[in-house]
Write a structure and sequence with these properties.
Layout (H helix, E strand, L loop, with lengths): L1 E6 L10 E7 L1 H7 L1 E4 L1 E3 L8 E6 L14 E7 L33
Antiparallel strand pairs: 1-5, 2-4, 2-6, 3-5
């Protein structure tokens, strides 16, 4: 696997309390199996947005100006009230991790 940090020469000013994250452009993944590594852009960052591209394919992959490699998603940061507890309530899943439920998360007809 090859990876590279590609600078976009795009700069943004997010409002305080918001963040941005880079995600793959679906066509890039579907056609070429190239993945964009997640990156978080803080509200006070003013530099060029970088996109981490990972090439899982066998062929060399060249990024040209104007190529759609990633998308920027912005979200609001939520700061919940927290409290320290000795024991958490038990759930059906408990501490089961990735894939532990085996349940489908979409509606079935």
């Amino acid at each position: 696997m090859d990876k590279a940090l590609v600078k976009t020469n795009i700069q943004i000013a997010l409002p305080s309390g918001y963040y941005g994250t880079t995600v793959p452009h679906s066509g890039l993944v579907a056609k070429y199996f190239r993945v964009v590594g997640a990156g978080v852009i803080d509200a006070d960052y003013r530099g060029s947005i970088g996109v981490v591209l990972c090439n899982f394919g066998k062929e060399r992959f060249e990024v040209k100006k104007g190529d759609q490699t990633a998308q920027l998603i912005c979200g609001q940061i939520f700061y919940p009230e927290t409290e320290d507890v000795q024991v958490l309530d038990s759930t059906e899943r408990d501490s089961g991790g990735f894939g532990s439920t085996g349940k489908k998360t979409y509606a079935q007809n």
